[in-house]
Amino acid sequence: MFHCSADCCERPGASMQQVHQCMERCHTPLAQRVPHHCPLDLAIQDRLARCTMHCNDKAKDSFDSGSKEPVVRAQLERCVSACVDEHLNLLPSMTRKLRDTLDSIGK
Question: For the chain, what is the radius of gyration of the CA atoms?
């Protein structure tokens, strides 16, 4: 899903509206698969999805207020990259929580 969102940002010639719609389409499969994942997996995906959608909203607002598309696209890419970096840092603690949960079930 997040590769999909990143690909949306890199589509040459795509308007900001097309990028916005593309990112929304990327997030649709997550909503459809929700019952099939463990709660910790969903938590990090949901948080990352919200973060990237926030970036998308900021980019759309910036574009709507008159910013040039290359500037907005660069802002969007930096924001999405920051989301990914932030959530990658959460993986070790999420892994520990999952391991603790599995250990408690096995006892």
Answer: 16
pLDDT tens sequence across 33-76: 544 446 666 678 888 899 999 999 999 999 899 999 899 999 99
SS3 11: coil
Cα 8 to Cα 23: distance, rounded to the nearest angstrom: 6
The pTM assigned to this predicted structure is 0.58
The residue behind tokens 């924001």 is 79
- C-alpha to C-alpha distance for 18 and 38, rounded to whole angstroms: 32
Q: In the 8-state DSSP scheme, what is residue 37?
A: S
